[in-house]
């Protein structure tokens, strides 16, 4: 097959990196009056569990040091819903992979999937929290604020989700997701209010990252300001989310997917697909076919989001831990996201089959983009069919010459640098 020629481009997203992340954490903890909320000798839980947060070990270490300076007893508590297969061992495996360990952070790390119901919402939804959270005298909630991949509203991925889904444990995550994606934007704030009435939440530390994945902002919020403060932070996060440089594609080639890039392996806000019954598909971008070629080691076999693709490889499928993947999607109820795409022997076969199936366009004339993953969108390769459009985009720099797609002796696509 004659494949489209590709050229390297660079998207020039603004750099907004904090120069001193630990200093910013320290200053925020001082500024927010946390010393007045923590008593000497108290057992203070600091949440952890979200994957892919830049500088998370430095942030947690600085928080641990601050709590120790108050003569309190800090500990890291797992807050990851059903992730890790909903088991203590699976949670520990994820935290170890994130380098969130006692040796690295300076405080004990506690995992636990046992939950207890703490109330019922007006909608009749039971709300749970983990036992390890209930045993704390005070809790500091830590999370990155960004757009969610299943629903949109004033509270998406952030502090309130960490309280409700994260500290809810496997049972809490399951019961809240049963309400359906259309209701989560209302359920999560309501559940967060109920949990804050039943748990000693002392403070929240919210993280924003720029388009280069660098920490750009650290903000502390008292519990009574979680809702309003997080809504404003989410507005900022939406403005800086990196996206593809065009809205219409015939084929998107994704080198790797995994939960270290997005909770759904590939960010739905980038690829323009939801695959949730009853939820409208985004109008932009419009991508005819998606081919994903590999699974990251950091996702530990969890291929939640594989169903967002149309084509994949045996290499990826052979790495899937179906027990973990099924547990994840059944908990969320978004089962289409685990459906296996058309699976080809190798990268070349997946790409050629995807192009052949377009029908309405010759493969060499197709509008194609090749990316590393949906998180790193600064550098990519684009087909020459996109040149005219991209030349009008002042944020795009063409940095190479048109070349053939290159594969190695195993018919694997040569990765982006």
SSE arrangement:
Layout: E1 6-11, H1 21-31, E2 43-48, H2 56-69, E3 73-78, H3 88-97, H4 102-105, E4 109-110, E5 115-120, E6 126-130, H5 131-134, E7 138-144, H6 159-166, H7 169-177, H8 181-198, E8 201-209, E9 215-221, H9 226-240, E10 248-257, H10 268-271, E11 286-295, E12 311-313, H11 314-317, H12 322-332, E13 342-344, H13 347-356, E14 368-371, E15 379-383, H14 387-390, E16 396-398
Parallel strand pairs: 2-3, 2-7, 3-4, 7-8, 10-11, 10-14, 12-13
Antiparallel strand pairs: 1-15, 1-16, 5-6, 8-9, 14-15
Helix pairs in contact: 1-2, 6-8
Number of domains: 2
| Percent of residues in helices | 25-40%
Order of helices and strands: EHEHEHHEEEHEHHHEEHEHEEHHEHEEHE
Low-confidence stretches: none
What is the third-level CATH name, the topology of the largest domain?
A: Rossmann fold
CATH class of the largest domain: Alpha Beta
**What is the SS-derived class?**
alpha/beta
How many runs of DSSP E, i.e. beta strands? 16
Protein architecture, described:
The protein is α/β, with parallel strands linked by helices and 417 residues long. The chain folds into 2 domains: 6-14 and 242-398, no CATH class; 32-240, LarA, N-terminal domain (Rossmann fold), CATH 3.40.50. 30% of the residues lie in helices and 22% in strands. The longest helix is centred in the middle third of the chain and has 18 residues, at 181-198. The relative contact order is 0.16. The model has no long low-confidence stretch (mean pLDDT 94).
